[in-house]
Amino acid sequence: MRAVRIDEFGGPEVLVPVEVPDPVAGPGQVLLRVVAAGVNRADALIRAGLYHRAGRPPLIPGVEAAGVVAAVGEGVTGIEVGQRVMALDGVNAPGFYAELAVVPARQVTVLPDGLELTEAAALPVAWLSAWYCLRHLAKVTKDDTVVVKAAASGVGSAAVQIAAELGARVVALAGSPDKTAWAAGFGAHDTLDTSAHPGDAEVEEVLRLTGGRGADVVLDTVGGPAFGRSLREVGHGGRVVALANVALEPSTIDTRDFYPKNAAVLGFQLTNLQIHGYDPREDLRELARRVAAGTYHVPVETVVPLDQARAAHERLERRDNRGKIVLAVNELRMSGPTGDLQESRGGAKKS
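Predicted structure:
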């Protein structure tokens, strides 16, 4: 089968198209014919040797995908050959940058009718993270004001929609006027361009937008110095949910910024949550139903052929994408005669 493999850690140039043997589903496993694979920050960390569970090269990256069941192993029930499914496995880093992938059955969710496979491939990481953080950890209600950082990112654009649907007032933070305008289109009530309000100015503007009270919930998808600002932006009895450190920098904090406010700091890491017993399938089924019904919109910005995974990672690391980058693997029509990198701002490619 065709796959993209990492033979040594490094930059996007180490993503190399190769031919490898077809995998076989063992007991409790599903063999997935991958149609679309999501491109995530976790994939870039795997490639760079910074993902703590990835092991050593050679490695096939990819922690989320959607496709069709090709075979099931012994003991698998409730999943049949030919069904359209999405899959998640950040625990084992099984390698969805490939035409075929083996994944534990407990990590496979059958899709409803009406959900595009390109959309489904974007749900298991970003959307599930936003859903769990807002609904299970922060327990957002209609009475809350929710600040979403990096609101034009995959997690951020999902969080804006989920919080808005819950009836909360959403303040979307992003790093340019174009990105804040884009986030507003997903239901944000207020936006803040952090490039125009850096550092302390960001905190002052969030406090102004919240009438000096601070936010009820701050979803910190950035980490590093931004986490310290999140603690200052949250209000009395509020919740700060920290789920990333894309800044790859230490966070310097002053405990006086949050303990006098009786604020809660909540951490989230999807892989460790699964290791400790979380079954994502119920939440993924609910997300899939809502996307299929049109409640949420999954913005798939760019669809890239599998052998252009390097270009996909380069785009991801420039951080100039708005919406999800997806790899087209099997039976996915590309828009354009050459199969080169294609972009569709604000809309999903059709499978």
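Summary: Residues 12 and 311 are 8 Å apart (CA to CA).
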